[in-house]
Amino acid sequence: MTAEISALAERLDTAQITCADTPSLADDHEIGLADAYAIQAELVARREARGERVLGVKLGLTSEAKMAQMGVSEVIAGRLTDAMLVADGGEVSLARFIHPKVEPEVAYRLARDVDLADPAFDVESAVDAMAPAIEIIDSRYRDFRFTHTDVVADNTSAAGYSLGPWRPFGEAANRAVRLRSGDREVIGSTAAILGDPARALHALVELCRKRDIPLRAGQVVLAGAATEAVPFAPGVAEVDIAGLGRVSVRGLA
Ligand code: OOG
Ligand code: MG
After folding, report:
1. Residues 223-244: pLDDT tens digits?
2. C-alpha 152 to ligand 2 mean position (Å)
3. Which domains are present in the chain?
């Protein structure tokens, strides 16, 4: 662990804990993608040292809408911890965040470990359930302005997530998606997630193999947003996916 990687992980960790944004790391640092994943790993290790547990992995920028919204066009992966989990229908204080947004996602559950060393591993055979999900993203960067390496270092803006009822794993392509928060409503389709959210599972395995991110039995995988993200306004944020069901959280001002 180089001193620079530790220092940048601390900078992002402090931004999250104190709810104070920070400028893009790229403004004054030359960071490669391997460094960015190393910063993320260090950031997550700091959270684990405080008692948090990693409960899952998320993919980001798997849809054109998100790529266009953020100006970054490569799939990214981050970690979800127990401190980020909000119960379905539960409340979460918006004061915990800097400038939170919500997005509609499909969640998958891993029934067994993924053997990243096996190039022929069939990830779909390791998934036993799926659910509608809301992700709360909260970039630690000022004005959500970041580069590809910035957002990877910042654990891909991960800040919260909520899961609707699980159902057996199956086809989830081409489902109508509705996201509502405050006076904003966005309509989309799960087809926006790499054509089919199941493809996100394959993209995830590839990324995790390359970046040494373990995928374990019981973990949740978020496949990436189906639409652009909208501000998480005080009140109810709700996601509805046709045939999958709905999930909601209430943001307290
Ligand atoms: C990065 C996280 C993107 C998704 O689903 O595409 C993401 C961001 O937009 O801040 O979670
Ligand atoms: Mg997301």
Report:
1. 999 999 999 999 999 999 999 9
2. 12
3. 2-252 (3.90.850.10)
